[in-house]
Amino acid sequence: KTTAGKDLVWRARTNLALPYLANIITDKSFDPLTNLKFFRAFDFYSGPAKQATLLSLLKGDHPHQSKISLYALIQLDTAGLKITPQVSSALASSLQHEKGSQGFLELVSKYKVKNQNQELLNTAILNSTPETKSLAIRLLMGNNGSGMLREAIMKDSTNGTALVRALGNEDDGKTKDFLQSVFENKLLNFSLRRIALQMYNNGWNGQMKLYNLVIGAQFPRDLDTMSERLLLNAWRQDVKQKALAFYHPGRSVIQQLPPVAVMLKFTGDREAGKKVFSITCVSCHQVAGSGINFGPDLSEIGGKLSREAIYEAVLKPDAGISFGYEGVLVSTKDGGRTLGYISSDTKDELAIKTIGGSITRIKKIDITSRKKYEHSLMPGGLVTGLKQQEVVDLVEYLAGLKKGA
Hey, which residues does 349 pair with through a beta bridge? Predict the structure, then answer.
């Protein structure tokens, strides 16, 4: 019962320690929320002894029994698990207690629950965490809930916008087809259709899919201007080159600007540069807490880099990739590809932070290849769609971002 004794049990990794582990967890003074490591200890066990210990935890009357049951259900190995009345009752109770949470979604996924589509939709609408919203939608669509999702999008524009943005974190064919049906639907609000197109363009597969749609005859003409901007600023170099050849035959991928030494002589407008930043850069960078947390925070970039270095970073992002932001391209068995940088890497799972700031978690058993991305995750030729003065204004704004400024 001492702290040292509990620590020994937690580290033991032998079946002889399992009864002691159960005793620690079922002690009435035990708080599961602050002692998750004792549940994670089960990661290092397998076999009948582990299963029996976890099943015993479902029977208690602990003050925090709902949380203990939740974590026990998450740790149980479902392969060959018999869903007894006891397990079924604990699962139903945990689903009820955990509505709208990450734990709720883990249970729905792990136990392949099919009768929680309305709660999945509610979670996707109401939860404020992007990763949780995305997982809720993924499970909803996997449970044949596309119709329910479509109805929610059409019924309420505010909820519809949140749902469509959450769909942008997925890059599979089913989700892309759904988003396409949204931006092609001219009965919907035009602003919502534009967001759906932007989300469709997210992801490795999405950018090529958008290009193939645009060169076809059926693409909605009222979205031509936006699709051109998206494709000319694609971070996939092959897509950018195809788009440039399609829209501007003969133009180089990198706009021919004067040398940096000449650009340094021009005067920029900070306010105009701030506006350029809000359109071009805010989808990946933050300034003073505003924007998307994907690339490096630029709140004090003017105090870290010279004006010349900022020009180089904007015009040639491949020339210097910040430490910790090296890209990786992961392919999976279902044909999907995920591009981003590694957020965490465990024995069983790889978490990748993707463009847009969301986290995609991939089971290692599903990975077919994992390759270093040869470019910066900041698109090369970012200034393709900008005028020379807009580039000067952008650098003026960035150079003024200093501590205390």
Answer: 363
The mean per-residue pLDDT over the stretch 34-50 comes to 94
Single-letter residue type at 233: N
Contact 209, 242 (CB under 8 A): no
Amino acid at residue number 7: D
Q: What pLDDT, on a 0 to 100 scale, did the predictor assign at position 322? A: 78
Amino acid at 315: L
Burial 36-69 (b: 16+ CB within 10 A, else e): eebbebbeebeeeebbebbbebbebebebbbbbb
4: CB partners within 8 A, 6+ apart = none
pLDDT at 316: 84
Average pLDDT for 360-381: 86
Which pLDDT does position 217 carry in this prediction?
75
Question: Token digits for 12?
Answer: 């033991």
- The dihedrals phi and psi of 378, each to the nearest 5 degrees, come to -80, 125
Q: pTM, whole model, 2 decimals?
A: 0.72
CA distance 397 to 222: 33
| Phi and psi, residue 367, nearest 5° | -85, 130
Contacts with 55 (C-beta within 8 Å, 6 or more apart), sequence order:
72, 76, 86, 87
The residue type found at 151 is E
- CA Rg value for the chain: 25
Of 354, 351, 350, nearest to 339 by C-alpha is: 354
The first and second tokens of residue 33, run together, are 């929320």
Locate 194 and state its tokens. 């534009």
pLDDT digits (tens, 9 = 90+) for 25-38: 999 999 999 999 99
Residue 355 has pLDDT above 80, yes or no: no
Q: Is-contact 298 399, C-beta < 8 A?
A: no
**What's the confidence (pLDDT) of residue 161?**
93
Contacts of 321 (CB under 8 A, 6+ apart): 327, 376, 377
Phi (first) and psi of residue 368, to 5 degrees = -100, -30
- Mean pLDDT for all residues in the chain: 90
Tell me the residue type at 107.
L
> What span, in angstroms and rounded, lies between the C-alpha atoms of 240 and 233?
7
Structure tokens at 196: 């759906």
Phi-psi region of 352 (alpha: psi -120 to 50; beta: other; left: phi over 0): beta
